[in-house]
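Appendix B, example 12.
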Amino acid sequence: MDYSTFCSLDKWQVISVTLERNYASLPLYIQIARELEERIVSGQYATGDIIPSETQLQEAYRVSRMTVRMAVKELVNRGYVECMRGIGTMVVYGKIEENLHHVTSFTEEMSQHGITMRTRHCTICETVVPERAAQALGLSPGTMVYRLERVRCAEDVPMAYSVTYLNIPSLPLDPDCYKDSLYAFLAKEKGIRVTRGEDTLEAILSDSILEKMLDMTRHSPAFKRTRIAFDQENRRIEYSVSYYPGDRYKYSVTL
């Protein structure tokens, strides 16, 4: 057996690590991955933390760089960490996960996870439809639509910033109407059901707007989701662009 010790690195305490090195033992990279996984699951390394570098892990476990890289890759494949270029290896375990297999509102997404949702910021107004939204909604230039801007929070942590253009007549201009589920409001008050959507996902870096709206660090990773939503009569009623912090949110897709 090899007894190695972590130096005190940032949040890491001095911890003894035992790796089995006999013929019948598991590969070293598997042992390292499991040991790190235990620390992540236990909460010792929280979501958003940057774990020590390859060199620091080499020294702590007394293994080769290749072994460390294989261990980290194992954690990446299992969804515990992500390698961020220019940042390091970030813990992502515990992110809220949205499974993309049907159209849901943010309120519904949070409810599925048993999370209390609230709206921190909400404005609505009438405006001339922007060019890109007009193309998505099949509208002529100069058409008036409703612009809804919201910041949604899960357990008081900002999780989504969205700008939505709605091609629906006679909507109230009271922001309180839109602080819960937009889709539920439309179904109840307007008899409009969102039956399907076309989503496009992109990975981006946060800018000054996301820094302000989502309490993000400038140039940190984020998701951008563009959605065109259709009602029960297959009319295009919604064009929205939503942003999600990369360290608090993840997507999976059911095919």
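The first helix runs from residue 28 to 42. Confidence is low (pLDDT under 50) at residues 1-14.
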